[in-house]
Amino acid sequence: MSDDNVEIKDGMKIRKLTELRTNTAKAYEEAMLSRVEEFKVKNKNESQFNDVIQNTIVQAFSSLLDIKLQVDKVLGEENLKKVHKVINEILLTGL
Amino acid sequence: MYHLDNEEYVKEPYYRKTTSVCPECLQPIGAEIFEEDEQIWMRKNCEDHGDFRDLISSSAKYYKWTHYAIKDKNGNVVWKFDKDGETNPPDFQGDDPRGCPYNCGLCEQHISTCSLALIDLTNRCNFNCNFCYANILQSGYLVEPTLEEIDRVMKHFRSKPIPAVAIMFTGGEPTVRKDFPEICKMAKDNGFKEVIVATNGYGFQRKKGGLEFTKKCKEMGLDTLYFQFDGINDATYEKTRGIKKLMSYKQRVIDNLRKARLDSTVLVATIAKGVTDIEVGNIIQYAIDNIDVVRGITFQPVSLCGRIAFEEREELRITNADVLKEIEKQTGGKIAMENAWYPLSTIVEFGRVIAYLADVEPIEFTCHPDCGFASYMVVDPDSGEMMPIMEYFEPLKVIDFANRFWAKIKDKEKKPLKLFEGLLGDFGKTLDQGLNYLDKTQLKARFLLGILQYMKKPGKLMELFSRLLMRGDWESISSFSYGALLLSSMHFQDAYNMDLERAKRCIVHFGVAMPDGSVKEVSFCTMNSIHRPEIEKQVAKQITAKVRAEFDTSTGQEAIEVQPEVARNGGIKKDGEE
Predict the structure, then answer these.
(1) Per the CB < 8 Å rule, is A29 touching B285?
(2) In terms of Cα–Cα distance, which of B506, B539, B537, B535 is closest to B523?
(3) Which of B297, B375, B379 would best serve as a mutation to test chain A binding (most A beta carbons within 10 A)?
(4) Which of B426, B451, B480, B567 could form a disulfide with B562 if both were Cys (CB 3.0 to 4.6 A apart)?
């Protein structure tokens, strides 16, 4: 946070939050990723991050999400509502 | 307004009846919650002490949204924020004709289970805040359970059909106890998944030994600090705690936590009007700047204890809605009241689905909608800026899907498939286990696909989220929450605004080891507003020379750099001292 965004009012430091950005965004992102690495090492075979099936599912899910977002744009809001309704019916059927 | 499918609802004046207590004699009395000038108020009358009136919410519109109910074609309520919890059997058959809250123990009127167990480890403290409800200097006696008593309380909470998952040590200042790290280990040994300490930072900030203490606590099982943090200005602490230059003390705690990699801290800010409300933006930015250590912020609108005239209360009273408005204002609208915040009870069904699919103990947030609000901030990988997680989802649609999903599968939890056990014995049992595993796997896939429909952004965060949905174990929770900041606003009740509908749904319970060998379980707000003096009288101990010696700054505990007259001897003055 630069000093430009700090106002002194009655002797108190007041930050003007024009954006919610961390000073250490990059380091933070790396830390978030290294957290995964840490679990991989610490929990060894017990860790889901070392589970091939789990990782494949997550990867597939991620690809599916990318496709879904593209399709959402094409469908438009009204059609999307209808699609959601049908998908929900399918997903909740037989439970 | 957002999320409402019936806008007319917010135009209707709000009104309901409830039960409260008289702030003077603490006897239960009827109360009305009503709307006036776009605010929500409580009014009540005690035959002996007259009329009372108090502000419940400064935003009638927001309040009404949190009490909104979705109805079916026949007018039956099918969903509301107010959730019935799964309950444990009552511990106590109270015979007080006044009923709740005088039969606490817990009695059969309580309709939520305990999600967070609390144990007061001591009423000693190195600070002497004048508003504190648990302070040896004000009470004149010691309340400090033995290790055996603490173990008894832990076993009480863990032995229930629905055991408490998390435990928080409170006080006083829990870290003044030399055996504090051993108590953390005891909690883990008793099966608590999350061990938390509510602290002003005393043990962790010490220049000599603070880092070693922090490492030791982590090693022994401490997971999270619930860290008193009123702002970033020394002047604020001088007003709230009566102590000069406290910010460097607070910063030392964060520095030691970082060095020890004890990386789960929740900043806890008591919000008083005109005192700390101007700090909310500062606190949020401080948390973001220390995101590798800080996991959340809890804003707590101040509870008003003691006898306070209406005019003075009106000046001091601040509600959850005021805090949310202030956060919106001080973050330039980036954390907006109308789309970033939800009552804690919103995610009850969602949490139950996750817990069932992941085979973990559920945490039930079935508290009353007035108790607290939460928002979850995450870093947008594209902009590097933090934003509410609602930006990634269509929140109410996700919640609606989770509710419908839970309604369909909830019986499976109680009745797992048993097709072959009766026919084929042990082999059949194994077959049934396999079938149940397959069943759960297909349920996970269905649920994940259901949620996927309402996701709005791709990226690594969503990958971690998918792991959370599939596994829901502590590894997935930790890896997901490492990149996020949980904001919440929790308004604890006092005798002026006590609503017993809230008390009955409380999910935060104190456990006290009583002299007769039993454990008394009492909900948070009724403990602090009503029961504390009576219970403490029963468990109080004399302040002995041994206690004085243990916490004597001249024999082992180094002096700390805060105002000496409140910091010495853990709040116990030596003989002859003023």
Answers:
(1) no
(2) B506
(3) B379
(4) B567
Distinct helix (H) and strand (E) counts, chain B = 22, 18
Rounded to 5°, the CA angle B83-B86-B90 comes to 120
Of B112-121, B261-270, B341-350, B458-467, minimum mean pLDDT range: B458-467
In B221-308, alpha helices (H)? 234-241, 247-260, 280-289
Token representation of residue B294 = 């800080």
| B195 Cβ contact partners less than 8 Å away, ≥ 6 residues apart | B166, B167, B169, B184, B187, B188, B221, B222, B223, B224
Residue A3 has pLDDT above 80, yes or no: no
Nearest residue on chain A to B482, judged by CA atoms? Answer: A32
> How many separate domains does chain A show?
1
Mutation choice for A interface testing from B475, B481, B485, B487 by most A CBs within 10 A: B475
- Phi, psi (5° rounding) for residue B430? -65, -40
Q: Which tens digit of pLDDT belongs to each residue from B303-338?
A: 887 667 788 888 888 999 999 999 999 998 989 998
Which residue, among A3, A61, A92, would best test binding to B if mutated, counting the most B CBs under 10 Å from its CB? A61
What is the architecture of the domain spanning B116-401+475-539? Alpha-Beta Barrel (3.20)
- Residue-range domain boundaries for chain B: 7-80, 116-401+475-539, 410-471
**Residues of chain A contacting residue B444, judged by C-beta atoms under 8 Å apart:** none
- The domain in which residue A70 lies consists of 3-92
The tens digit of pLDDT for each residue in B243-287 reads: 888 999 999 999 999 999 998 999 999 998 888 999 999 999 999
Nearest residue to B22 (alpha-carbon basis) of B58, B48, B57, B60: B48
Contacts for B106 with CB less than 8 Å, ≥ 6 apart? B88, B90, B91, B92, B509, B521, B522, B523
- A86 and chain B in contact, CB less than 8 A: no
Which residue, B82, B72, B81, B108, is CA-closest to B93? B108
pTM of the model: 0.88
Task: Report ipTM (2 d.p.).
Answer: 0.81
Contact B292 A27 (CB under 8 A): yes
What proportion of chain B, given as a percentage, has pLDDT over 90?
49
